[in-house]
Amino acid sequence: MTGPTRGFLGRRRERDPRLPPGQYDTGADWPVLTAEPTPRIAPETWSITVDGRVANPTTWTWDEVHRLPGSEYRGDIHCVTTWSKFDTHFAGVSVDTLLEAAGPAPEAAFVMATAKTGYTTNLPLADVTGGRAWLVWEFGGEPLPIEHGGPVRLLVPHLYFWKSAKWVTRLTLLQRDQPGFWEQNGYHDRGDPWREQRYQGD
Amino acid sequence: MGSSPGGRRAPAGGWRTATVTAVDRPTPRGVRLRLDVADRIDHLPGQHYVVRLTAEDGYRAQRSYSVASPPGDPQVELFVERLEDGEVSGYLADVVEPGDVLEVRGPIGGWFVWDGGSPALLVGGGSGVVPLVAMLRTAHDLGRSDLLRLAVAARTRALLPYADELAGSGALLALSREPNGIRRAGRLVAEDLVPLWEPGQTAYVCGSASFAEAASQLLVGLGVPAPDIRVERFGPSGTSG
């Protein structure tokens, strides 16, 4: 713990209780932060597969996933680069619905999400079950923009947003944890914004 | 994309104390900071540092900034563009003086790094040139400047950080608001990149979200395989740079 920085006053004297530590309100903006060129994915060529430690590995096409019971998220999102965005509204399907069909094996404890680009991110299975994770294709009532992961991205809003893999095409259930793309590159394995788990060792 | 070129990178470690040794303002909205970082971990060209400021009442704000200095430089050089209403960039641009002590954490990032030994095409917009300058300086230190090709973009030369250094190393300057002697005013276009691209290069694209998107799509259009393109985007809300 070090002392104050000389001459730094800080801007926000009233701290919004919805802001996790070290975050600021980005307002109407929605910054785009990805490490690869944005892929153009036609919805009719997109599919989502749930495989790995499951009883029934399953793939859904765009049309098939839309026929599943819908589910929405209304609330805040938080990026490790310190912006938070309040009162977002996403629509898609709960990850619980997909897992119910695929039937996780008893030993399944982690998930690796893989994107069309090859991007990966790992999560404890417990962080994508119990109504805490979605596959989403709508933002604010409109199709999810491609730069934000359209046609379909993962949404795990209680963790930093690099866990919410854009352009997601596969969820692989694993017995043991493996680091994903950013997790191999110095970022935290879990990424809880309220515990400020930004980098390895936090 | 696959794993990072050198495998896993060292974690960022904890917060460190940095003493500001020099401050100058080479562009109208840009400030260059030179830092002595206690017990610093060597960085790789392309990595960034987080700077954390603490107010008297304990309020804190932190932002990431790319490193411009090569690993062999005894100090860490950051270039910060003052953003409109920028809480951290405004402080760094207007208040910081030599002798001030800042909290920093880094180096961070294992993807947007150049290994120093393979050919690369570097494409930067505005303050997005900063990590590319670190790569350029590293190549110079290694005697391998032949490995790098650069194209950089800004509205005017006066607004381009490290303009003289970049131009002096043969970078193509795409200036959207003024001609540069050999090129008409205008945004970076595919024909700017055609003579620079060679198969086998890794492309590093850094800049604002809109610049990075446009430049990376230009490369895809030229036939650069998407897995060979690494992108570092700055959010419009001052998440970096």
Polypeptide structure, described:
The complex is a heterodimer of chains A (202) and B (241). With 202 residues, chain A is mainly β. Chain A is built from three helices and eleven strands. In chain A, strand 6 and strand 7 form a beta hairpin. Chain B contains five helices and eleven strands. Chain B has helices at 87-94, 130-142, 163-168, 190-193, 209-222; strands at residues 16-27, 30-37, 48-54, 60-66, 76-81, 101-108, 120-125, 148-154, 172-175, 202-208, 229-234. In chain B, the strands form two sheets. Chain B has a six-stranded antiparallel beta sheet with strand order 4-3-6-1-2-5, with helices on one face. Mean pLDDT of chain B is 90; it is low at 1-8 and 236-241. At the A-B interface, helix 3 of A face strand 4, strand 6, helix 5 and strand 11 of B.
Short summary of the structure?
Chain A has 202 residues and is mainly beta. Chain A has helices at residues 62-66, 95-102, 181-184, and strands at residues 24-25, 47-52, 58-61, 71-78, 83-94, 110-115, 120-124, 134-139, 142-143, 153-155, 168-174. Chain B is α/β, with parallel strands linked by helices and 241 residues long.
Poorly predicted tracts of residues of chain A: none
Helix content of chain B: 10-25%
> Strand fraction band of chain B?
25-35%
Q: How many distinct helices of chain B?
A: 5
The overall pLDDT average of chain A reads 94
The succession of helices and strands of chain A, N to C, reads EEEHEEHEEEEEEH
- What is the count of helical runs of chain A? 3
The interface involving the most residues is between: A-B, 45 and 58 residues
Strand content of chain A: 25-35%
Order the strands across the largest sheet of chain B as they lie in space.
4-3-6-1-2-5
Main beta sheet of chain B: 6 strands, antiparallel
How far apart lie the N and C ends of chain B? Answer: 24 Å
Rg of chain A from C-alpha positions? 17 Å
Rg of chain B computed from alpha carbons, rounded to a whole number of angstroms? 17 Å
Element string of chain B (H = helix, E = strand): EEEEEHEEHEHEHEHE
What are the low-pLDDT stretches of chain B, counting only 5+ consecutive residues below 50?
1-8, 236-241
* Residue-averaged pLDDT of chain B: 90
Helix content of chain A: under 10%
Q: Using the alpha-carbon principal axes, give the shape of chain B.
A: globular
